[in-house]
Amino acid sequence: ALGRARVNEYSVYSSTFNIETYRRHQLQKSIRTAIRRNELFLEYQPKVNAWSGTIVGAEALIRWQHPDWGRIPPNDFIPLSEESEMHILIADWVLEETCRNINQWILADLPIVPVSINVSPKRLIHGNFAETCQETLQRFGVSPSMLEIEILETDVLFDNSKIQQSLQMLSQMGIKIALDDFGKGYSSISYLQQYPIDTIKIDRQFATTLVQDKKTQSVVRSVLFMAKEFGMDVVAEGVETMGQLHFLRGLECTTIQGYLFSKPLPKADFEQAMRRRQIAATEAMTSPISTR
Length: 292
Ligand code: C2E
Ligand code: MG
Ligand code: MG
Ligand code: MG
What we know:
Blueprint: H1 9-36, E1 40-49, E2 55-66, E3 70-72, H2 74-81, H3 86-107, E4 115-118, H4 121-126, H5 129-139, E5 147-152, H6 153-156, H7 161-172, E6 176-182, H8 189-194, E7 199-202, H9 204-209, H10 214-230, E8 233-236, H11 242-250, E9 255-256, E10 265-266, H12 267-276, H13 281-286
Parallel strand pairs: 2-4, 4-5, 5-6, 6-7, 7-8, 8-9
Antiparallel strand pairs: 1-2, 1-9, 1-10, 2-3
Helix pairs in contact: 1-3, 2-3, 3-5
Organism: Exiguobacterium sibiricum (strain DSM 17290 / CCUG 55495 / CIP 109462 / JCM 13490 / 255-15)
Protein name: Diguanylate cyclase/phosphodiesterase with PAS/PAC sensor(S)
Domain EAL: 24-278
């Protein structure tokens, strides 16, 4: 029907609009079936010690392999899922899949490290997330200390009592809380004391300009200093080059996450990496750890 539409200004505008609406609608419908049809899976990106290359943690990142459309990046469907209740199903699926995998690693006698999952603040507002975590951790025999919640800095800004309550409960259960993409949004220094934050993840944009830009260096230095004062851990995200690594070492930033050490890995490849527990930056740069 769209193909037969008259090409005048109005119909061009309205058909474009309809295709977009149609696409969103289709995508939303598909998210609903994605879980059922096993199209979702997780990849794990190691977090490593800046000096030794030892894997000290991992971030679980959702992947969607659609049978017709191929890989759909999380940035394309996570925001869409938040327009309906679908984001709850996704969050709870990620939680469950992560705990299921940790349980498999325990049973297989693999060394385990804390794994973080990204949780949308909307999931925290909706309620009962802490209870869901408790139930899921128990069901898979996983210690709360093995789970970390990553929450976007921008969204924590909203002075939302539900979010605050939810984070307090998670924290009291022994689940660590990380502030994701720190520095990308508004400055939230005053909120750092208000929320039970254990870890600050410095946004990738800072790694990009760190080596050349003096201002970025000051910001990163200040964040590291402040985190130390508050007793928080820091992770530098998006580290891609040896130059950036050297700089961060100089600033005594202990934990690094980025392509320099490892891309997000399919589960089997992550398990392989965990068996060795160690990734050298130079090795990671010269050998194709993951081509997927
Ligand atoms: P994020 O939580 O900040 O995750 C880090 C993103 O940076 C990931 O992209 C990762 O692949 C990418 N990355 C890591 N190291 C490097 C690097 O050295 N260079 C560059 N250029 N990129 C790097 P990804 O997997 O596409 O995820 C994008 C965002 O989607 C995430 O950002 C997170 O906000 C969201 N997301 C991913 N998985 C989930 C999930 O399970 N639930 C929710 N609610 N959001 C998720
Ligand atoms: Mg994250
Ligand atoms: Mg991030
Ligand atoms: Mg991000």
